[in-house]
Amino acid sequence: MNGCRMTDASPCSVGGKRIEGQPGQACHDFRKMFEEAIQVITLMVEMRDCHTAGHQQRVAQLAGALAEEFHLSKDRVSRIHMAGLLHDIGKIVVPIEILGKPGRLNEIESAIIRTHPSVGYEMLKQIDFAAPIAEAVLQHHERMDGSGYPAGLAGEGILPEAKILAVADVVEAMCSHRPYRPALGVDRALMEIEAQKGVLYDNDVVDACLTLFRSRGFTFQAQPGTIRPQAEERVLVSAKSGSRARTAAK
Predict the structure, then answer these.
(1) What does pTM read for this prediction?
(2) Is the dihedral of CA 195, 152, 139, 53 positive or negative?
C-alpha cells in the first residue's frame, strides 16, 4: 500500500508536540490524559448518534489491527487507531433527527450527512498530530474508483490511513444495527469488501481484513465508556423531549 509517508513522533511527544525535559512517568501521564480526552470526544459524538453507539470505538479497533497487519510501527498503529476514534467527529453538527431517521434519507438529508468528513477535518486540522489524522478523517469516505466523497479522490490519491479507515468503517457498519436495517453480520460484510476489492476498497487492505477475520480470529471487543442500551434510550428520550420543548416555545 503506497502513498502517504507517516512521520514517527519522538518517544516523548503528544499530539505531535515534543514534551521537553519531562521524565518518563510525566510523559506517560500526559499522553494518557491526551488519549482520554480523545475518548471523551468520541463519547460525545456517540451520545448524539445513539443508534451507532460504539461504532467509532470498534472502527478504531479494526483500523489498529489492520495497521498491525501491515507491520507498521507502534506509533503509526496508535495514530491510525486515533483516526478511527475521530473519523465521525464531524457528525456532531448533523441534526439528531437525520442521524436516527429509520427510513431512507432524502436528497437534502444525504447532502447534510456527507458534510461530516469535511466538518471533522475543519475541527481537527489545527491540531498537530504529527500524522495526517485530520486528512484521513476527511478522506475516509473516498473510494478507489473515485465514486466517494467529498472530493471524489481515486487510487493513490487517497491516503493509506484513509484506505484503512474506509474498510474498517464499512465492515463495522455492516456488522451493526442501523435505524433503517438490522445488522448484516461479519460474513456478509466480508463478502461485500471482497466483491468490491480494487473497485471501492484497496486490494491490500481488503486482503489484510479478510486475513484478520478468517485466519486470525479477529472479533470486535466491548469497550469501557461505550453507551449501553439503557443510556441510549435515556439520550433519545431527552433529545425528543428537548425537541418538543423547543417546538412549544415557538
Answers:
(1) 0.77
(2) negative
